[in-house]
């Protein structure tokens, strides 16, 4: 189970953040040392990383899917490399149809619908497996701070409503490492959604001459079915408020919101409570795609019945300037291929 980030991470630096500063300084030094002193594995394939500066959700997985679609239109054959958070499998293993989220994690199941996907806690081993496949580009979903594999392009996602919080390193704030070295290692910023909390970060990237792109969360399919009944929304993701906003924007009459920890495994009791409430109130159950794929297929259990009786909200990330992102990725790929001798 993943705990929800504390709310004070996203406020001005307060007493708790100040008290934890010594620990944050130590954590930051260790993170920076790992990033700069680890000898990375250099894959023969171009490696594009979709990451973020902070812990928690920022739209990395749907952005990785959007990047894969752009690459496929350009004639590339991308393959995803992911750690598979929440799954028991260390890998490297290729995600196949019918695999359980308990084994490989929820995000890999979503990625595998769009391109071959490898789950590997050891990213070097995962990259080497992809090299044996019919892939031309490795797309890393997360792993920006992991220095075990060299990256030819690093795209950073940030939520416009939360930004980088109080700008402090764990545990005083949400940053995974000190900000300055992270900005130096990044190549472009993708700002997801509307808001002003990322404005300072946008300025930093702009001053450094790095590309800044806007992206919006949209719906992938017709969702008129949302208007049939009142909706009970439930979510076990890092940014549940974004899901509930999207539900409302799509026309749902949202009567209740149920929030669970990120990557949550629903118990029989929790699933049955949702089913009972929906029946008593004559409501439709709607959840995120990540939550839906985590639910089992077996209807003999309450979580399995919950999957059968709920619907996932089909979202996608829409990049404001797809051509600019495509050019950036293509240039990085071409630079990499220019460095590799033809055999």
Automatic annotation (TrEMBL):
Pathway: Glycolipid biosynthesis; lipid IV(A) biosynthesis; lipid IV(A) from (3R)-3-hydroxytetradecanoyl-[acyl-carrier-protein] and UDP-N-acetyl-alpha-D-glucosamine: step 6/6
EC code(s) of this entry: 2.7.1.130
Catalytic activities: a lipid A disaccharide + ATP = a lipid IVA + ADP + H(+)
InterPro entries the UniProt entry points to: LpxK (IPR003758), P-loop_NTPase (IPR027417)
Keyword ATP-binding appears in the UniProt entry: yes
Gene Ontology MF annotations: ATP binding; lipid-A 4'-kinase activity
Enzyme superclass (EC): transferase
Keyword Lipid metabolism found: yes
Keywords: ATP-binding, Kinase, Lipid A biosynthesis, Lipid biosynthesis, Lipid metabolism, Nucleotide-binding, Transferase
GO biological processes: lipid A biosynthetic process; lipopolysaccharide core region biosynthetic process
Similarity field: Belongs to the LpxK family.
Known role: Transfers the gamma-phosphate of ATP to the 4'-position of a tetraacyldisaccharide 1-phosphate intermediate (termed DS-1-P) to form tetraacyldisaccharide 1,4'-bis-phosphate (lipid IVA).
Protein name: Tetraacyldisaccharide 4'-kinase
Organism annotation: Methyloligella halotolerans
């Amino acid at each position: 189970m993943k705990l929800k980030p504390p709310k004070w991470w996203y406020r001005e630096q307060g007493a708790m953040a100040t008290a934890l500063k010594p620990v944050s300084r130590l954590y930051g030094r260790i993170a920076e040392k790992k990033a700069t002193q680890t000898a990375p594995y250099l894959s023969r394939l171009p490696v594009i990383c979709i990451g973020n500066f902070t812990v928690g959700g920022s739209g990395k997985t749907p952005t990785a899917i959007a990047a894969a679609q752009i690459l496929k239109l350009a004639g590339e054959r991308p393959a995803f490399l992911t750690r598979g958070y929440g799954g028991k499998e260390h890998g490297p293993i290729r995600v196949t149809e019918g695999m359980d989220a308990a084994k490989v994690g929820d995000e890999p199941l979503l990625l595998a619908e769009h391109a071959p996907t490898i789950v590997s806690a050891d990213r070097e081993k995962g990259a080497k497996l992809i090299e044996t496949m019919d892939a031309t580009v490795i797309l890393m979903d997360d792993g920006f701070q992991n220095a075990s594999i060299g990256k030819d392009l690093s795209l950073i996602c940030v939520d416009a409503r939360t930004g980088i919080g109080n700008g402090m390193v764990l545990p005083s704030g949400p940053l995974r490492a000190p900000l300055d070295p992270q900005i130096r290692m990044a190549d472009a910023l993708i700002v997801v959604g509307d808001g002003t909390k990322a404005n300072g970060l946008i300025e930093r990237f702009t001053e450094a001459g790095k590309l800044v792109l806007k992206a919006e969360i949209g719906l992938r399919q017709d969702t008129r079915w949302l208007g049939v009944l009142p909706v009970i929304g439930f979510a076990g993701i890092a940014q549940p408020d974004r899901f509930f906003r999207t539900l409302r924007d799509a026309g749902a009459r949202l009567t209740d919101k149920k929030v669970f920890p990120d990557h949550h495994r629903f118990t029989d009791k929790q699933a049955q409570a949702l089913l009972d409430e929906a029946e008593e109130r004559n409501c439709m159950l709607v959840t995120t795609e990540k939550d839906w794929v985590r639910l089992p297929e077996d209807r003999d259990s309450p979580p399995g019945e919950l999957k059968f009786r709920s619907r996932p909200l089909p979202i996608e990330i829409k990049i404001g300037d797809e051509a600019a992102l495509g050019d950036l990725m293509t240039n990085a790929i071409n630079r990499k291929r220019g460095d590799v001798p033809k055999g």
